[in-house]
Specification:
246 residues, mainly alpha, two-stranded antiparallel ribbon
Length: 246
């Protein structure tokens, strides 16, 4: 009786241990299948290529080419290359961009893509200059790009940024005047001093858009006074003749 009970208990223990082993094996296999490991540790989001997929994985404000590559929609071909001393691009034909290859979904020319391609071409040639030949003349002119494409691409974002800066500077100046004189915003708007400060803020932002503009104006002043400084330096330690002397 004791032998039979001992045998049943042993068989039950063995079955239970085998079941636990199977469960543990399934859990380990599932974990290995779902998560990639590197050196015994779980890969981070950046090592796995990010948490996004498709065109979203290209990042914020990514170019159209980068989005197409991440989505697997980029067309095969040669783009923006220099080979055997010549600029090579499948969209560059006969010394100009083939605008038909920049068509959007509606069949119209995507001028932003044309601008991007021309900027990339000029940057490539600036970094890797090649000789110009009559056989491979460049006949593309940026004047072919409509004026509204340039305005939409460059001037509108710049105008929006300048308007925001002018508003912030003007509002801060109005608060300072209100604190010093007690005149409210409407009183300042109707007063001569308020209008003067408004124009100072607007034209100041237009003249000095970035801190680098300060260096630009300094260089202009130095250039304008360079010859005078050079002339005065030539007379250092030298007795200048009198204008009255014949």
């Amino acid at each position: 009786m004791n032998v039979q009970a001992f045998g049943k208990a042993r068989a039950f223990t063995a079955a239970r241990s085998q079941k636990r082993s199977c469960v543990r094996t399934r859990v380990v296999v599932k974990a290995d299948a779902e998560t990639a490991t590197k050196g015994g540790r779980k890969l981070g989001p950046l090592e796995r290529g990010g948490t996004l997929s498709g065109a979203d994985a290209a990042g914020k404000d990514a170019g159209e080419r980068a989005k197409q590559m991440m989505a697997g929609e980029a067309k095969a071909g040669e783009f923006l290359q220099i080979r055997d001393g010549r600029f090579v691009d499948d969209r560059w034909e006969g010394g100009r961009w083939n605008l038909s290859k920049f068509a959007n979904a509606a069949g119209e020319t995507d001028w932003d893509k044309v601008i991007d391609a021309e900027m990339a071409r000029r940057k490539l040639l600036e970094d890797s200059p090649i000789p110009s030949t009559n056989e491979d003349a460049v006949i593309f002119d940026t004047a072919e790009i409509p004026w509204w494409a340039w305005v939409r691409r460059f001037h509108l974002p710049e105008a929006e940024k300048l308007n925001g800066r002018a508003a912030m500077v003007g509002y801060f100046a109005a608060l300072a005047v209100d604190q010093l004189t007690g005149a409210g915003l409407l009183d300042q708007q109707n007063s001569f001093l308020g209008k003067v400060l408004l124009h100072v803020a607007v034209f100041g932002i237009l003249i000095i858009r970035t801190t680098s503009d300060l260096g630009k104006y300094k260089n202009l002043i130095d250039e304008a006074t360079f010859y005078d400084s050079q002339w005065n330096a030539a007379w250092v330690g030298v007795q200048r003749p009198s204008e009255k002397e014949q």
